């Protein structure tokens, strides 16, 4: 059976097989590669916000203004600004607490004097 199958397979001609040929021409050959991804600058510096914000329990700080991407900046140049509302609110609360503590201290001094 194996011999018969080999003979049938080897004698069968595949008429759907067609050679594709073309004429070779001299000319330009453009190579275009399209891809997606992210480019990273050869020379870049990572900029971080103030590191002591966590110490004063400020966690949600938004970027209010930022120089356009690709702008060349030098050390000390303006890069951007952060939203100051949470920090200002915390500072105002601390000032209110200080004022209240000073009032309590003055009251305690008067009470101990009497």
Describe, in plain words, how this protein is organized in 3D.
The chain has two helices and two strands, in the order H-E-E-H. It is mostly helical. A two-stranded antiparallel ribbon has the order 1-2.
In angstroms, what is the radius of gyration? 39 Å
Number of strands: 2
Q: H/E series, N to C? A: HEEH
Strand content: 5-15%
Question: How large is the count of helical segments?
Answer: 2
- State the secondary-structure class: mainly alpha
Widest β-sheet, arrangement of strands: 1-2
Helical residues, percent = 25-40%
Low-confidence stretches: none
Q: What best-fitting shape do the alpha-carbon axes yield?
A: elongated
Global mean pLDDT: 83
Main pleated-sheet profile: 2 strands, antiparallel
Distance between the termini: 123 Å
Topology (SSEs and partners):
Layout: H1 2-11, E1 63-66, E2 80-82, H2 85-113
Antiparallel strand pairs: 1-2
List keywords for this structure.
114 residues, mainly alpha, two-stranded antiparallel ribbon, elongated
Give a brief outline of the structure.
This protein has 114 residues and is mostly helical. It is 34% helix and 6% strand. The longest helix is centred in the last third of the chain and has 29 residues, at 85-113.
């Amino acid at each position: 059976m194996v011999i018969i199958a080999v003979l049938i397979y080897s004698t069968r001609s595949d008429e759907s097989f067609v050679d594709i040929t073309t004429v070779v021409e001299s000319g330009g050959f453009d190579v275009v590669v399209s891809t997606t991804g992210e480019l990273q600058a050869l020379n870049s510096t990572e900029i971080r916000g103030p590191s002591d914000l966590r110490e004063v329990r400020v966690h949600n700080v938004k970027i209010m203004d930022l120089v356009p991407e690709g702008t060349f900046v030098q050390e000390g140049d303006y890069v951007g600004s952060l939203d100051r509302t949470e920090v200002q609110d915390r500072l105002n609360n601390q000032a209110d607490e200080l004022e209240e503590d000073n009032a309590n201290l003055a009251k305690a001094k008067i009470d101990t004097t009497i």
